[in-house]
Amino acid sequence: MRSCSTQTRAPRPTRAPHSVATTALKIALRIICAVCLCLPTFTQALAQRVPVSDLSIEVTERVAPLMQQRMQAIGRQLGDPIFFRIIKATSTLEVWVGPDSWVLLGTWPICAWAGTLGPKLAEGDEQSPEGFYFITPGRMNPNSQWHLGMNIGYPNAYDRFHERTGSFIVIHGVCGSSGCFAMTNPLIEELWVLAQAALNDGQDVIRVHIFPFEMTDANLSLHIDSEWHSFWRNLQEGWNFFETHGSPPNVDVADGRYVFSHVQ
Predict the structure, then answer these.
(1) Which of 172, 175, 209, 262 is the catalytic position?
(2) Long-range Cβ contacts of 44-53 (<8 Å, 24+ apart)
(3) Is 111 a catalytic residue?
(4) In this predicted model, what pLDDT tens digit does every residue of 225-260 receive, in sequence order?
């Protein structure tokens, strides 16, 4: 099979000079041929949207076959769109797989999160947030000091409207938190591979919905005296959207409240 590398050839016989137009045409044809020969590598470069490191490459080579097996067990493929749903009270992170009908791939235990039930309010309050966030390719950090990290984008538009501060809230490895969601190294590797594949295969963002508990009416009634009851009622609308329609909603902010609609 031919490659893009140059090869040494024997000298050609001297020929009469070509016209400028003929020479330009030949150069153009050679460039087109070179691009065609290099097309697989060029396409792979375009597809690689998530930053990489030696660690993330090693993790992908080792963990991707296992994640592909898990995906195939539910009729999906590695690279299909995914959705994270975190429930603080049970310290769990659910991974759902789309795109048409969203299926639960599995539930990952969270090793550590910080604070109590309720939203994050300020930088340094050692509180893990609640609400609706998302991970982009640029928020994936293969060089994290916590093994691997996925920044969820706190504060979002809702947080900024309510003048909440803070930064660098991450789903990461190890087992310790001052506001992030720590998964341990083996589990963040699995989540990293799932997220990396989905983003590199064209998913624009991975939605991350964070709830204090399963947002049933019964559970809300247990917290009716909480200062966050009204806030949680708003979060429940997003929970119910997914439970009713079977797909994660588009989330906007209007007049200081979350509002939900179908993803276009």
Answers:
(1) 172
(2) 47/200, 47/201, 48/200, 49/137, 49/199, 49/200, 50/137, 50/140, 50/142, 50/195, 50/196, 50/199, 50/200, 51/137, 51/138, 51/140, 51/141, 51/142, 51/143, 52/142, 53/142, 53/143
(3) no
(4) 999 999 999 999 999 999 999 999 999 999 999 999
